[in-house]
Protein backbone atom coordinates (compact mmCIF):
# COMPACT_ATOMS: atom_id res chain seq x y z
CA UNK A 1 0.00 0.00 0.00
CA UNK A 2 1.29 3.44 -0.89
CA UNK A 3 1.32 6.22 1.64
CA UNK A 4 0.10 9.53 0.37
CA UNK A 5 2.48 12.41 0.84
CA UNK A 6 0.65 15.14 2.68
CA UNK A 7 1.63 18.76 2.35
CA UNK A 8 -0.16 21.40 4.32
CA UNK A 9 -0.46 24.31 1.90
CA UNK A 10 -2.02 26.54 4.52
CA UNK A 11 0.92 26.40 6.92
CA UNK A 12 3.44 27.01 4.13
CA UNK A 13 1.42 30.00 2.97
CA UNK A 14 1.24 31.34 6.55
CA UNK A 15 5.02 31.04 6.97
CA UNK A 16 5.59 32.92 3.72
CA UNK A 17 3.06 35.56 4.70
CA UNK A 18 4.72 36.07 8.09
CA UNK A 19 8.10 36.56 6.45
CA UNK A 20 6.75 39.29 4.17
CA UNK A 21 4.56 41.08 6.75
CA UNK A 22 5.56 44.67 7.38
CA UNK A 23 4.81 46.74 10.43
CA UNK A 24 2.53 49.66 9.60
CA UNK A 25 1.32 52.64 11.61
CA UNK A 26 -2.28 53.87 11.86
CA UNK A 27 -2.00 55.65 8.49
CA UNK A 28 -0.54 52.64 6.69
CA UNK A 29 3.05 53.91 6.53
CA UNK A 30 5.75 51.26 6.94
CA UNK A 31 7.67 51.39 10.23
CA UNK A 32 11.31 50.31 10.61
CA UNK A 33 13.77 50.01 13.49
CA UNK A 34 14.90 53.42 14.71
CA UNK A 35 11.93 55.37 13.34
CA UNK A 36 10.36 58.20 15.33
CA UNK A 37 6.61 58.04 15.94
CA UNK A 38 3.93 60.27 17.43
CA UNK A 39 1.01 59.15 19.60
CA UNK A 40 -2.42 59.84 18.10
CA UNK A 41 -4.35 59.22 21.33
CA UNK A 42 -3.85 59.75 25.07
CA UNK A 43 -2.64 56.44 26.52
CA UNK A 44 -2.73 55.41 30.17
CA UNK A 45 0.31 53.27 30.97
CA UNK A 46 -0.59 50.33 33.17
CA UNK A 47 1.57 49.90 36.27
CA UNK A 48 3.32 53.25 35.89
CA UNK A 49 0.45 55.58 36.84
CA UNK A 50 1.37 57.82 33.88
CA UNK A 51 -0.63 59.10 30.92
CA UNK A 52 1.21 59.72 27.66
CA UNK A 53 -0.55 62.59 25.89
CA UNK A 54 -1.55 62.78 22.24
CA UNK A 55 1.27 64.27 20.15
CA UNK A 56 4.04 62.83 22.32
CA UNK A 57 7.11 61.99 20.22
CA UNK A 58 8.64 58.55 20.77
CA UNK A 59 12.14 58.29 19.31
CA UNK A 60 13.99 55.17 18.15
CA UNK A 61 11.37 52.40 18.16
CA UNK A 62 12.36 48.73 17.91
CA UNK A 63 10.26 46.19 16.02
CA UNK A 64 9.11 43.02 17.76
CA UNK A 65 8.05 39.67 16.33
CA UNK A 66 4.46 40.90 16.44
CA UNK A 67 3.44 43.21 13.58
CA UNK A 68 0.98 45.04 15.85
CA UNK A 69 3.45 46.02 18.59
CA UNK A 70 6.70 48.00 18.90
CA UNK A 71 9.18 48.37 21.77
CA UNK A 72 10.21 51.87 22.77
CA UNK A 73 11.41 54.10 25.59
CA UNK A 74 10.10 57.36 26.97
CA UNK A 75 11.68 59.52 29.66
CA UNK A 76 8.77 58.70 32.00
CA UNK A 77 8.49 54.99 31.16
CA UNK A 78 11.27 52.54 30.26
CA UNK A 79 10.56 49.26 28.46
CA UNK A 80 7.32 50.41 26.89
CA UNK A 81 5.41 48.31 24.34
CA UNK A 82 2.93 50.23 22.18
CA UNK A 83 0.36 49.02 19.68
CA UNK A 84 0.86 50.36 16.16
CA UNK A 85 -2.80 51.41 15.87
CA UNK A 86 -2.02 54.35 18.22
CA UNK A 87 1.10 55.52 16.36
CA UNK A 88 1.81 57.77 13.40
CA UNK A 89 5.22 57.96 11.72
CA UNK A 90 6.87 61.31 12.44
Explain this structure to me?
The protein has 90 residues and is an alpha+beta fold. It has one domain (23-89): SH3 type barrels (Roll). The chain has one helix and eight strands. The protein has one helix at 9-20, and strands spanning 37-39, 43-45, 50-52, 57-58, 62-63, 69-72, 80-83, 87-89. The strands form three sheets. Strands 4-1-8 form a three-stranded antiparallel sheet, with no helix packed on it. A hairpin with a 7-residue loop joins strand 6 (69-72) and strand 7.
What key attributes describe this structure?
SH3 type barrels; 3-stranded antiparallel β-sheet; 90 residues; alpha+beta
How many β strands by DSSP? 8
What is the helix content? 10-25%
Question: Which percent band covers the strand fraction?
Answer: 25-35%
What is the CATH T-level topology? SH3 type barrels
Gist?
With 90 residues, the chain is α+β, with helices and mostly antiparallel strands. The protein has one helix at residues 9-20, and strands at residues 37-39, 43-45, 50-52, 57-58, 62-63, 69-72, 80-83, 87-89.
Write the layout of secondary structure elements.
Layout: H1 9-20, E1 37-39, E2 43-45, E3 50-52, E4 57-58, E5 62-63, E6 69-72, E7 80-83, E8 87-89
Antiparallel strand pairs: 1-4, 1-8, 2-3, 5-6, 6-7
Amino acid sequence: MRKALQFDIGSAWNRELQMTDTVRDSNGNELKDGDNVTLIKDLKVKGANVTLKRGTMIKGIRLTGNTEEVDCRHEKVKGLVLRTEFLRKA
